[in-house]
Amino acid sequence: MLTSKQLKEFALNVVGVDKIGVASIDRFKNAPADLHPLNIMPRARSVIVIASRILRGCYRGIDEGTHWPSYTIFGYQHLSGRLQTAAYHICRFIEDFGYEAAIAGMAASSREWGPRGPAPRPGKPVSEVCLQLRIAATLAGLGEIGWSKVFLTEEFGPRQRLNAIVTEAELEPDPMRTGHLCDRCFRCVAECPAGAIPRNRSVSIEVEGHRLEWADLDLGKCKLTHFGLNRKNGQFLIKRYPGLYLPIPEQELTWKEAWDLGWSIFPSVPYYAVMSIGVPALCGARGCIIGCLKHLEKKGVVKNRFQNKPVFSEKPPWSLTEKPAPATHRGFIYQPEFDRKKQAAVKPGTTWY
C-alpha cells in the first residue's frame, strides 16, 4: 500500500521537487465538469500537486533593466519541462504500487480557451477538460492564490511553477491553509504594466470552509503584455516597430485573440523569434511576481532568504514611453534613424540593422 509519506519522500529526495501536497478528490466535488479531475480519471481518489522554485536570480536583470532571457528560458520554459519529467517519475513510482496515475498537465488558464470541439452529448463535459493548477495547489495545502491570481507559498512567495497528478491511490490529504500570505497590499495592481489586475473585482470559491479569492483579471490585456506587446516594458518590440502605438488599457482583445496576435508578431522581432521556440514569458512578471515578491520579502514572511540587502530595488519599476515620438518621415524608409552620411562606410555584406 502506498502512503503519502512514501510518496513525498520519493518526490522530495529522489525526484528533487521543492514541494508536494495531496488533496482528496472530495475537495473537488463542486468543481464544474470541465475542471473536474474525475473527467480525467473517473476512479481517481487523490490529486497530487508538485512545485519547483523559480530561481530568484531570474528576476534580477528584469528588475534592473539589464538582462531579460533568464526568466523565459530558465524560470518558465525549462522549469516547465523539468516539472513534466518530475511528474512522469512520480507516476512511475505510483504505478509500481499498482495504482494508475496520470499527469494532468500544466494549465493555469486553459479554461479561457473555451471548448474547441463540437458540443458534447447530454450529460457529458466539454471536450476541453483541464485541472486549474492554482486551485488544485491550494486544495493540496501547498499555499494560497494571491490577489493577482499568482500562487503563493511560505517558502518562495510567488516564485514557483506547478504541475499535478491525478491518481487512483487513496492518499492522506494535506490540510489547507489560506489567508496568511496575501494581505491585499495591491502592489500587483499598481505595478502591472498592463493594468490587467483590478482592485475591486474578484472571483471566489469556497472549499471546506476556506474562501479562495483572486482578482477578475483582464486576460486579454495580461496576455498582450505577457507576449511582449506592451510598449511600457517591450523594449525589443519598440526596437523593431518604433512607430507602433498599441495602448494596452484601450484594447478589448480576448485571451485567445491576444495569443494569436503574439504568435503572428514573434517571427518579425528577432529576440521574440528566439524566445518563442517555446511559449515565451516576455513581460517579466513585473507586477504579479516581482512586485509581490518585493512586498513579501520586505515583510519577512518568505522563508527562502538571501544575504543581499535590500533584496531588490525599492525604486518604482522602470517603464518606457507608451506613445511613440512623432514621426519625422512619411516615406518609404526602412530605418529612418540611419545616418546616410555614414552609408559609404558600411562594407558590402555587413548589416546595419
Verbal overview:
29% of the residues lie in helices and 12% in strands. The strands form three sheets. Strands 1-2-6-3 form a four-stranded antiparallel beta sheet, with helices on both faces. It is built from ten helices and eight strands. Strand 7 and strand 8 (210-215) form a beta hairpin. The protein has one domain (4-114, 125-172, 183-299). The longest helix is centred in the first third of the chain and has 27 residues, at 69-95. It has 353 residues and is of the alpha+beta class. It has helices at 4-15, 60-64, 69-95, 133-139, 187-191, 219-226, 235-240, 255-265, 270-275, 286-299, and strands at residues 19-24, 46-53, 101-103, 144-145, 151-152, 160-167, 202-207, 210-215.
Poorly predicted spans: none
C-alpha termini separation: 64 Å
Radius of gyration: 23 Å
Strand content: 5-15%
Helical residue percent band: 25-40%
H/E element order: HEEHHEHEEEHEEHHHHH
The description of the largest β-sheet is: 4 strands, antiparallel
Overall pLDDT = 90
Total tally of structural domains: 1
Number of strands: 8
Which structural class fits the helix and strand makeup?
Answer: alpha+beta
Count of alpha and pi helical runs:
10
Indicate the overall shape: globular
Tell me the strand order in the biggest sheet.
Answer: 1-2-6-3
